[in-house]
Amino acid sequence: MLDKSLIGRSLHTSTIQVEKGALRLFAKAIGESDPVYTDEAAARDAGYRSLPVPPTFLTCLEAQASDPLKVIELAKLDLGRILHAEQQFIHHAMAFAGDELTFATHIADMYEKKGGALEFLVTESRVTNQHGDSIADIRCSLVQRNS
Predict the structure, then answer these.
(1) What are phi and psi of 113, to 5 degrees?
(2) Three-class secondary structure of residue 69 per DSSP
(3) What is the DSSP letter of 92?
(4) Cβ–Cβ under 8 Å, residues 110 and 120
(5) Into how many domains does the chain fold?
(6) Using one digit for the tens of pLDDT, what is the confidence trace for 36-49?
(7) Name one Pfam family in it (predicted).
(8) Residue 139: which CATH number?
(9) Is 110 within a domain?
(10) How many angstroms separate the Cα of 143 from the Cα of each of 11, 76, 105, 114?
(11) In this structure, what are the phi and psi dihedrals at residue 110, rounded to the nearest 5 degrees?
(12) How far is 134 from 82, CA to CA, in rounded Å?
């Protein structure tokens, strides 16, 4: 059973610099063919100051900047019985190669369904850049199957 006293607890505040090479690899991995994500000249021609960060790449950056298993250990989840249930992004501004992004993450909620057969743990992360500008809010849900 999840310990609901953990709701509101800070998990980490971590900062990472967005690297051009990592952006190019991510674009290739997801099959992105728009050259603004891989070619700096194309990005500038499109009005960007550098390679833009694809929306879901924020999850990769957060995993690199922090210890993604910390929440699993803290909440005493069984790694063999959990699944990623949902991911939500609310974007406020673009991020670009060279930016330093800070992720401030906390446990936002815990709840159960089906009489406790399914337990959900929800984290929220506020993402800001090196100027303190809000880039995105990320909400992530994990589900643990108990039966």
Answers:
(1) -135, 165
(2) coil
(3) -
(4) yes
(5) 1
(6) 999 999 999 999 99
(7) FAS1_DH_region
(8) 3.10.129.10
(9) yes
(10) 18, 13, 18, 12
(11) -145, 135
(12) 30
